[in-house]
Amino acid sequence: MHEIQVHNTLSGKVEPFVPLKTDVVHMYTCGPTVYDFAHIGNFRTFVFQDILRRFLKLRGFRLTHVMNLTDVDDRIIANAAAAGIGIRDYTDKYVQAFFADCRALSVESPEHWIRATENIDSMVELIQKLQKKTYTYDSEGSIYYRIAKFKDYGKLSKIDLSGIQTGARVDNDRYEKESARDFALWKAPKPGEHFWETPIGPGRPGWHIECSAMAMKYLGESIDIHTGGIDLAFPHHENEIAQSEAATGKPFVKYWLHAEHLLVEGEKMSKSLGNFFTLRDLFGKGYKPSALRFALASVPYRRQLNFTFDGLQQATSSVDRLRNFAARLKNEKFPSGKQKAMTERIDKAASDFDDGLSDDLNTAQALAAMFDFVREANIAMDKGEFRQGEVKAAQQFLATFDKVFAVLEDNDAEKLKVLGYDTGSDRTDDAEIEKLVSARQAARQKREFAESDRIRKELADRGIILEDTKDGGVRWKRK
Ligand code: AMP
Ligand code: ZN
Fold it and tell me: N or C: lower Cβ tally within 10 Å for the chain?
């Protein structure tokens, strides 16, 4: 096994990954703001953190991973008010949709999902700590963080502070990337707005305080990994560091990992350009969850991911190729025995796979390790050179691969059904196909060709293609 290396935004370098405690990794991921359905750009980042999580587990780490749900912010308050409902009712729909989308993309549940609105007390306590240490000032019922007092401000994003006006403050949750200004920790309620009555006054939290408060509450004052999309590095994560480290005097996060953004056909995704997609938009067009997961996972997280429909189509074929290979290993009978060259080939593929993921989650290299092997093994099988004694090791490698990539199980139809897309669910299941395939084989052996042709046609009508192999076996795939 190779040493795990990750790129740390804090140092700007690729570093060996050594957790603070040996046996458990404490990880925090900024979750979605649940004011709408999450889009495929969001899921680029969530699939990245899922790959990271799964790889760490594969390598034997125990994880305590927290993901928050930002269920109060300016947009949520405005949208809920416009819909004439409370923020809880408004956000619930999108929280449930987000969970369903995660299941569709096989994004594992973190150990803790937490809602901002259920942790207001912890945020208030943290603000009180900052007040005691004079990192705050009040203005018109709101409380601001005094950036000038925190000397390390800018260490994550390397922002140039020379242009900062001391005391310039900003109240909105999402402000310009380039401006480093005092940010709101606590916001006084505007007339008619949702607010909490608390020891620091009536109001609601700013966006940044929730992640500091919840990360430290669930994971401790110093945590191993914090992830998010690159747009969060500044100001959100910079502000998290300022809040947490000013309050505790300890380093907040050892490794900061940020995913580059997803573009669509080379352009920034936006509703006005008509290139904005939620998962549901793509599933509605007939694309499979596994293909989308594959497409999102296939580009290493620190490279921009250019999402294209061609790419999604290729991802569909790639997943099929892997599933067909797994089916071959399961269904075909190979000559008995083992062959040294193939044994070594499987070991090399497994080692290259681990090497790729260890190198700052180079998913492209990990996938190349798998696909090079599949190509060579398929050729060996076609030539009758693949031996039965290699099946187990090859299957083990596929299983290891799938612990991280999670695309092998043929469960797209069920997933789509759960989300309300009917993909022709009268689709024949694998066991039934295999029964028909065996019946056709038996008919052929008895030289009952009319019967074997009839079964072949029946399978074809159900969208199943048969390919006879050199060894007299047969493999099948869906059209
Ligand atoms: P939000 O719901 O806006 O708070 O975003 C949730 C996550 O998605 C954050 O980690 C963002 O950085 C990330 N994100 C937003 N847009 C994109 C994009 N186009 N590509 C990749 N990640 C994104
Ligand atoms: Zn956050």
Answer: C
